[in-house]
Amino acid sequence: MENKLSHFSNIETTLNKSILIAQETAEEVKRSAEKEAKLIIKESEKNADRIISESLSKSRKIALEIEELKKQASVYRTRFKMLLQAQLEMLETDDWDDLSKQVEDLELSDSSKY
Fold first, then answer.
1. Residue 96: which residues within 8 A CB-CB, separation 6 or more?
2. CA-to-CA distance for 78 and 102, rounded, in angstroms?
3. CB-based burial of residue 76 (10 Å sphere; 0-12 exposed, 13-18 middle, 19+ buried)?
4. Integer CA distances (angstroms), 113 to 102, 103, 106, 107, 108, in order
5. What backbone phi and psi angles, to 5 degrees, belong to 110?
6. pLDDT tens digit string along 55-84?
7. Are 106 and 100 in contact (CB under 8 A)?
8. DSSP secondary structure letters along 65-103
9. What is the per-residue pLDDT for 112?
10. What is the rounded CA–CA span in Å between residue 62 and residue 67?
11. Is the pLDDT score of 114 beyond 60?
């Protein structure tokens, strides 16, 4: 009976040690997983910050390009308007009529030669 009692006592001790080792291993796995999760989160936050920073930089660049294009369009519009006004003024001057008269005179003098 004492033999059996000793045997069961050894089994109990072995089982308690096995449970303790399993608990310690589980705690170590848990700590390792938490540490890895924190590293993943930290890396993800760094990537998110980088992406946001790059996006803001691109956004600012595009905004500057838009402003530059607006300025160029305004300059083009002003220059084109000035060109059209100059052309209209040229058409409205007496010089245009004089030029037409000279062309007619040349055509008449050329036709009279024949």
1. 90
2. 34
3. exposed
4. 17, 16, 11, 10, 9
5. -70, -35
6. 999 999 999 999 999 999 999 999 999 999
7. no
8. HHHHHHHHHHHHHHHHHHHHHHHHHHHHSHHHHHHHHHH
9. 67
10. 9
11. no
